[in-house]
Amino acid sequence: MKPTIYAEQLTRRYGSTIALDHVDVSIPSGRIVGLIGPNGAGKTTALKAILGLTRFEGTLEVLGLDPSKDRDELMQDVCFIADVAVLPRWARVWQIIELTEKLHPRFSREHCMKYLARTKIRQSAKVRTLSKGMVVQLHLALVMAIDAKLLVLDEPTLGLDILFRKQFYSSLLNEYFDEQRTILITTHQVEEVEHILTDLIFIKDGKFIVNSTMDEIYDRYTELMVAPDAIEEARGLEPIHERVLFGRHILLFEDADIDALQTLGELHKPNIADLFVALMGEHQPTQEAA
Fold first, then answer.
1. Residue of 9, 14, 64 lying closest to 44 (CA atoms)
2. Rounded to 5 degrees, what angle do the CA atoms 274, 276, 277 make?
3. Strand 150-154 relative to strand 5-14: parallel, antiparallel, unpaired?
4. By C-alpha distance, which of 278, 253, 283 is closest to 265?
5. Would you give the end-to-end CA distance of the chain in angstroms?
6. Cβ neighbours of residue 215 closer than 8 Å, sequence gap 6 or more
7. Count of CB atoms within 10 A of residue 269's CB?
């Protein structure tokens, strides 16, 4: 079975700037992938290439198709939610639902209405009267009601309060995702998606710094909350990052000797946010906190 997304030496240049730098990736179906990176790292360019919205060098196949040549065919099986939901402000909700039903053969009105029933959005309301959060909710309901093989989410819950963000990810996992679908998510709220991800990609300066399954991540990286009298001994084992939390030193190790570490303090698996800061931030020499 072909991967949902396959790239080899994928590169995108804007003049002298390299937005994607010879990226290799293979994502099978049935995965939920987090594409995480700082602003300007290349996330948007990667999404545009996958969606057939920008030229590229190298090889890129999405659902077995070349996005730059077969975009019309590809988009029958791909849904995309941008970080800014754009819907016609003059239209009423029922009109947008009706239009989507006519335009997309895999749209389910029943599923759309099911999602909307959990909101305060009235079908008779005009988009311009809806709050920013409601517009996002309406957009989510429309897209999640389409039976797509690939769902691309770019900051999908921007503008939603925490209750609706949690509700969205719960619906995504329990009612939308299955082994035939692939979901690609970019977000700065990494703590909210960590529990649903199967794979993690960190992108920096157009390069994939991390490209692993979550199981591989948890096997590879270990945090040690070191005992006060063992700090120098722990540093001697060459951690890749150190931070201080409430006066306790926390050291991050890659492919560490667990037996050696466990005598020096408490061992934990790092969360994505802490791992992101450790791997993506500028390297600084380990030192005692002031």
1. 14
2. 65
3. unpaired
4. 253
5. 55
6. none
7. 12
The DSSP call for residue 83 is S
* Residue 36 identity (one-letter amino acid): I
Q: How far apart (Å, rounded) are the C-alpha atoms in residues 187 and 153?
A: 8
Residue 172 contacts residue 100 (beta carbons within 8 Å): no
Write down the number of H helices and E strands in the chain. Answer: 11, 13
Which residues are CB-neighbours of 117 under 8 A, at least 6 positions away? none
- Measured CA to CA in angstroms, residue 182 lies from 151, 177, 282 at distances of 6, 8, 32
Residue type, 197: L
Q: Which helix (H) or strand (E) holds 9?
A: strand 5-14
CA 243/CA 167 separation, integer angstroms: 33
What is the tens place of the pLDDT at every residue in 33-61?
999 999 889 999 999 999 999 999 999 99
Mean pLDDT of the chain: 90
Query: Is 5-205 a domain of CATH 3.60.20.10?
Result: no
* Residues in CB range of 125: below 8 A, 6 or more apart: 92, 93
Reading the block at residue 31, the tokens are 């995965």
Q: Which two tokens stand for residue 93?
A: 């909700």
Confirm if 2 and 61 have CB atoms less than 8 A apart: yes
Query: Looking at the whole model, is its pTM more than 0.90?
Result: no
Q: In this structure, which amino acid lies at residue 194?
A: E
How far is residue 122 from each of residues 60, 84, 96, 100, 118, measured CA to CA in Å? 42, 21, 12, 17, 11
Please tell me the distance from the alpha carbon of residue 195 to that of residue 218, in angstroms, as a whole number. Answer: 13
87-132 per-position pLDDT tens digit: 889 999 999 999 999 988 899 999 999 989 988 999 999 999 998 8
Structure tokens at 54: 């920008």
Three-state DSSP state, 171: helix
Of the candidates 16, 144, 4, the residue with the CA atom closest to the CA atom of residue 67:
4
